[in-house]
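2.7 Reproducibility. Because tokenized structures are sensitive to small changes in the input, we list the exact sequence used for Bile acid:sodium symporter, including any N-terminal residues retained from the expression construct. No trimming or masking was applied before prediction.
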Amino acid sequence: MTRPSFIPDNFTLSLVCTVTLASLLPCSGSAAVAFGWITDIAIGLLFFLHGAKLSREAIVAGATHWRLHLLIFLFTFGVFPLIGLALRPVLAPMVTPELYLGILFLCALPATVQSAIALTSIARGNVPAAICSASASSLLGIFLTPVLVKLIMTTNGDAGMSFDAIGRIMEQLLLPFVLGQVARRWIGAWVTRHRSMLKYVDQGSILLVVYTAFSEAVVGGLWSQVSITTLAGLLACCAVVLGVALTLTTVTSRLLGFSKEDEITIVFCGSKKSLASGIPLAKVLLASHAVGAIVLPMMLFHQMQLMVCAVLARRYAARTDTPAVRAAQPAPR
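Resulting structure tokens (single pass, no recycling of outputs):
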């Protein structure tokens, strides 16, 4: 039986159920401490498996297409934070100060990996470049996101996070990734064979962080501070940020003369933000009581970008001017 198109994917439904569970049955006290330890272990395992899955060749592949990668990284770690700051007069009145900080944190995150590559493939874009760019963005985010969070949240007038948090990033995220790279020679083939099964580690770790973060936020009175009107305003904020990012990546790639295939890669890799990286980074970088409000904009933006970009991918895929079509056409006489 075909799944109706209006029903969200299983992971989105799981996120909704997790938030509902945390709202009705939040963990606290010793249970919260236990869940915190379990979550830390799950996040370490997640980055370990990412390190084991990503080949060294993939890390350095595509480096010759430096203009494309430079533009994507510029949008991901440069233009996006500027969008969040420049649109403050528009965005801040729609939401609470805590949720606006969540939008700023969202703007500092690296790009997605799996969905950016999958959408580029569906749209018949430059898939090898997407693999290289998305993978490198995820790795660079471990270093650049903490710096950006410090800069833009200080600019916003808040204390932001301490540079000491970089040490926690190294310990909880980078070290497992490096160990995964070291262990790749022994377990790399097994990880590749079970790639589809490993998505449950990704999703399970995210659900754990969402549950613990929302539990603490609910105990601290999150839902008494976030009204239906505020949620509607947050949806509008996410739509504005995504719309501006998609417009800028599309227009800039065309003005710089990139091919349609490269344009697709720039649009899908340069306009998306990673929930998988964002939630662990929020847990490490920010005060625990603030993570719940930070996670909410990421969750809404994540689903919105998937839905909008899926429509764009199908429109790109429907084009007739592709290398394969051009090669099949007879040469002009």
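The first helix runs from residue 10 to 24.
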